[in-house]
TrEMBL record:
Natural source organism: Clostridium yunnanense
Name by which UniProt lists this protein: Class I SAM-dependent methyltransferase
Keywords from the named record: Methyltransferase, Transferase
Database matches in InterPro entries: Methyltransf_11, SAM-dependent_MTases_sf
Annotated Methyltransferase type domain residues: 38-126
């Protein structure tokens, strides 16, 4: 992902209540301490920095502008580059691989996932966060009240990210087909099922994050709610 990044706008979102809640929801399903973690497509290093408090973290990111503004309160190794840098890493060397909102912008998904399989330990897992089109349609229609844009998404395909370009959607279970079945889906969690549909003024109330966190965690694996989540958090485990 190497587009022109609106740095200040992105960081404003990260620091807003809904940005903080997003990361809180994703991180609680990656239970790691004392592990070797690879964060591929690490962006501003928000997740890498968080897990570096209690883990040995390597982050790979091609966009130098994002790296320049990265979070680095905790020590972790930052590599500039993409899949070529990944190929240089030793096999079976990481316990956890994190790859959040990256696959939508790549043409070589199978190649990347095969590299993940190579560098991941046999008992390790990969954390993939991906867009879910049904959730975007719900947000367009309900929160933004852009009904025509919702219809356009239904009829004609993919949305566009201001920073990264076209969001090329893919089905969760395509992840199992890449790399000849080296991974199996272990869990699928919904993220941002409800809080993206509420008015922003509600999100500044003192107990909003804790209350909404409890609601989202309670429903994150219930299919009826998960199906309309803005994001899906997919946990993959090695099969070979």
């Amino acid at each position: 992902m190497s587009g022109n990044i609106n740095v200040h706008g992105y960081l404003d979102t990260v620091n807003a209540p809904w940005g903080k809640l997003f990361y809180k929801l994703v991180w609680h399903n990656i239970d790691c301490e004392g592990k070797r973690i690879l964060d591929f497509g690490s962006g501003f290093g928000i997740t890498a920095d968080y897990f570096a408090k209690n883990n040995d973290v390597t982050a790979i990111e091609p966009n130098e502008e994002m790296i320049k503004h990265r979070f680095c309160n905790n020590e972790y190794s930052q590599i500039v580059g993409g899949i070529d840098e990944l190929r240089k890493l030793p096999s079976k060397s990481y316990d956890v691989i994190i790859c959040h909102n990256v696959f939508e912008y790549l043409d070589n998904r199978a190649e990347l996932l095969c590299e993940f399989s190579r560098v991941l330990k046999l008992d390790g897992f990969a954390s993939i966060v991906k867009h879910n089109k049904a959730g975007k349609i719900m947000q367009k229609a309900v929160f933004e009240y852009k009904i025509n844009e919702a219809l356009e998404l239904i009829n004609n395909g993919n949305a566009v990210s201001e920073n990264f370009g076209t969001i090329n959607e893919y089905d969760n279970y395509e992840l199992e087909k890449y790399c000849e079945g080296s991974f199996k889906i272990y869990k699928i969690y919904g993220v941002r099922m409800f809080f993206g549909l509420q008015r922003n003024e509600l999100k500044n109330e003192s107990d909003w994050i804790s209350s909404m966190y409890n609601l989202e965690c309670t429903t994150e694996e219930i299919p009826e709610f998960r199906n309309i989540a803005f994001f899906h958090h997919v946990i993959l485990k090695r099969t070979t």
